[in-house]
Each structure stands twice: as structure tokens, then as C-alpha cells.
Specification:
It contains 16 helices and 10 strands. The protein is of the alpha/beta class. The longest helix is centred in the middle third of the chain and has 19 residues.
């Protein structure tokens, strides 16, 4: 059966998410804990009254020392999330008269301090339904006005997620903390009549097989995990990448654990045909996410999703592509059906809705692995036939060279999936 379609929530997505008819296009929301803590009432009011399953992702990359540029001072939302873990970390991070504050080292998390942090993070999620309800009436009225049926019960997070860190290897001290958090979370969930869905995150330089090793060391009794391979870019995927995911899926299957990809795109959706249980992404972004501290956050400018190419392009580039590729590549989803390939005037909400329709179609077809491989190969062959650079024009710029490059990506995806059959 098709896998579960998860969406990373952003407050800028409320307009597209509150459309009742689009609710069939996705299954669950992943709410960043930065929003759930700093914008607790606004975020809580909307996601609770939406009455759809959601989880709260407590990731805290700013307080795990990583060798990238340190921001001068964390954003208020990052501070609010850090304080949920431990109030002292904000004081350590705070800049002073002599310069920036200090990093929070692994040694800071003593057994007692980490136990307390895990309990605080889990309790915040467990109590979110009651603590974040001040604006529910406002959002209930808004949703009722657009036709939502609000007879379904209001429920807090679908499952609890213990705090976690990016892990580099199985003997990493950060992994020891993660595993302890899962064990403690498992007990907390049982005691509060809840269930757990851990997030397992590996660093961008880690061996991809580490995810499977981590699953094999989880306590018994779990049935789902969300896996985050830091910085993995699907456009660069090789057969080894797909085979590693397949191995991770098989290890999970041996333990009765369904494996979801926390950040993935069209290739990950196709891997549902290999047993991947689900894929999460943002609405028009976040198909890949660097686990390291980032200087900037937030979604990129909206782009148009090219359904036959399985990629985003800027709207002007997408228009150029569609005009050159022709009607066989036009999207005919409910948003685009009357556009005849003219996409320049689409609003941000229309771009998002179009993407959700395209991705929903991919999910619906995800269990037919052979059909997906054949489609990748078919589109690649067309692009090769039309856009392979002519040898006698090496010095002339080719405005469609990116379509030839996309053919390489699609062919590599087909070969990688073929290797896993």
C-alpha cells in the first residue's frame, strides 16, 4: 500500500492547509518545536483545530557543537526551545561583553541533567493539547468558515518524540544520549498512555548504514522511526545510497519497526516500493536538510514543481522548460488543468497546492516500483534525445543544458532502484 505522506509545518502554509479538499493529499504534520514553543498559542490553535495527526519535532541543532559558523545570538524561537531542554543552556550561549557565549559540550549533559531534559521535552509535548489552546476558538471559526467538519475530537501530538542529536558513529557519545532518551521516552509513553516515534539523525559525513545500526540497538516495543540522513541530496543519489536505505528498511522490518524518511523527495517516494513506510518534506521545500547549524533558516522562495522531471525549478525557468518540452509535460492537476502550461502568474498558494497534488500522485503510484523505474528511464531517454549537447557547438551556450543534466539524475535513479530489486 502507498506510504504515509508527512508534511513539515510552517505558519506560512496555513492558507493551503486549511483548504478542506486538499486534506486528502497528506497524512500527518511535523511541527517544528521552535514554532510550538515560541509561537505556542498560534501554532497550537491551528494544528489542534485542524484535527489531523501531528508530531512535534524537538530538534535543537544550535546547542550541539558543530564545526560551522556560530551565529552571534540564537533566534528567540531557538532560545525558547533550548530552554525547554534545560534553562541553563541559554545562559551558556548568551553573548557577553567579551564576545559570543560558549558552546554546550557533550559533557554538559550529565546523567541527571539529561534525564531532566528528556522529561521536560516529553512533558511539553504531552501537555501541548492543554497548554496551547488559548486561540483554538479563533482557528475553529476560521476553519468552520471554509467548510471544515469540526466534529472530530481535538487531540494533542499523535506520538511523542524524545530529544535527539546528530550521530556520527555507533560509539558516539551523542548516540548514547539518544538511546537513553528513547528508553526513557518509551517508559514515559507507557506511563501516560502514549506512543513514541523516535527520530534518528546521522551527520552528513556518517556512513549511511549507521541508521540501520541505530535501529538494531533501539529498545524492543517500538514500531516506527523517522530517519534523517543529514544533508543527503537525492540528485546525487547512487546505487549505494538506495541499497543502504533498503538495508535500513530490512533491519527495521526484522524488528517490526517501520522506517520513514524525515527529509526526502521523489526518489524517496519511489523507495516506498522497496518498503519505505513514509516520507516527510516541506510544502515546496525541505526535501533535504543539513543537520548542522545553519546561518539562515526558513523556506526558500516558492518554485514550480515539474511533475515529469520530479524536480523544483524557479517559476521563470519552469516556464521556459514547459514551453520547450511541450504539452506532454504540462501538469493537469486541478490547479494547472486550465493553464495550458502557462505558470508565470501562479500565486504562492497555487504553487503549493499544485505541488501537493503532484506529490500525492507520486505517493499513489509509489508501490509500483517497476512502473517508476520505467518512467524515470522514459523521461531520461527523451531528455537525452532532445538535449544532449552537440559536439560541434561546444563554445555556444546551451540554455537547456540543465535538462540534459536532469536526464542524468533520472537515469541514475532508475539504475539505483534497479540494483535494489
Amino acid at each position: 500500500m502507498p506510504g504515509e505522506h508527512w508534511l513539515s509545518y510552517s505558519s506560512s502554509d496555513q492558507a493551503v492547509l486549511r483548504d478542506r479538499d486538499r486534506g486528502v493529499l497528506w497524512d500527518r504534520l511535523v511541527v517544528p518545536a521552535t514554532l510550538a514553543t515560541y509561537y505556542k498559542q498560534g501554532t497550537g490553535g491551528f494544528v489542534l483545530e485542524l484535527r489531523r495527526p501531528f508530531v512535534i519535532d524537538p530538534r535543537t541543532p544550535i546547542i550541539q557543537p558543530i564545526d560551522v559558523t556560530r551565529p552571534p545570538d540564537p533566534k528567540p524561537s531557538h532560545k525558547s526551545l533550548a530552554a525547554i531542554h534545560d534553562p541553563d543552556v541559554c545562559e551558556i550561549w548568551a553573548p557577553g561583553p567579551l564576545g559570543p557565549g560558549q558552546e554546550v559540550p557533550l559533557e554538559f549533559w550529565t546523567a541527571d541533567r539529561w534525564t531532566s531534559a528528556v522529561n521536560r521535552v516529553l512533558r511539553f509535548q504531552h501537555e501541548f493539547e492543554w497548554q496551547a489552546s488559548e486561540k483554538r476558538d479563533k482557528y475553529a471559526a476560521m476553519l468552520r468558515e471554509v467548510g471544515y467538519d469540526l466534529d472530530a475530537p481535538v487531540e494533542g501530538p499523535w506520538r511523542l518524540i524524545p530529544p535527539y542529536w546528530a550521530v556520527g558513529h555507533i560509539d558516539d557519545g551523542w548516540w548514547a544520549l539518544c538511546r537513553q532518551a528513547v528508553e526513557q521516552g518509551h517508559e514515559f509513553a507507557r506511563n501516560h498512555n502514549r506512543e513514541l516515534v523516535p527520530i534518528l539523525c546521522i551527520t552528513h559525513e556518517a556512513d549511511p548504514d549507521l541508521l540501520g545500526e541505530m535501529i538494531a540497538r533501539l529498545p524492543r516495543g517500538l514500531d516506527q522511526v523517522l530517519c534523517w540522513r543529514g544533508g543527503w541530496d537525492e540528485t546525487l543519489a547512487t546505487s549505494a545510497d538506495v541499497l543502504s536505505w533498503q538495508k535500513t528498511i530490512e533491519i527495521g522490518g526484522e524488528r517490526g519497526v517501520a522506517v520513514h524518511n524525515l527529509y526526502g523527495g521523489a526518489l524517496s517516494v519511489a523507495m516506498i516500493g522497496l518498503g519505505l513506510a513514509g516520507v516527510n518534506h516541506g510544502i515546496g521545500y525541505s526535501e533535504s536538510r543539513d543537520e548542522r547549524r545553519l546561518a539562515q533558516t526558513g523556506a526558500p522562495p516558492m518554485r514550480y514543481y515539474m511533475p515529469t522531471l520530479r524536480e523544483f525549478q524557479t517559476v521563470p525557468t519552469a516556464q521556459l522548460s514547459l514551453s520547450e518540452l511541450g504539452a506532454d509535460h504540462w501538469c493537469r492537476c486541478p490547479v494547472c488543468v486550465d493553464l495550458a502550461g502557462e505558470v508565470l502568474r501562479m500565486s504562492n498558494e497555487e504553487l503549493k497546492a499544485h505541488f501537493l497534488h503532484c506529490r500525492a500522485r507520486e505517493f499513489a503510484a509509489a508501490d509500483d516500483l517497476r512502473a517508476n523505474i520505467d518512467d524515470f528511464e522514459r523521461v531520461a531517454e527523451e531528455l537525452y534525445a532532445r538535449f544532449t549537447p552537440a559536439q560541434d557547438r561546444e563554445d555556444e551556450p546551451d540554455p537547456f543544458s540543465y535538462l540534459f543534466e536532469r536526464a542524468n539524475v533520472l537515469r541514475n535513479w532508475a539504475a539505483a532502484l534497479e540494483a535494489a530489486i
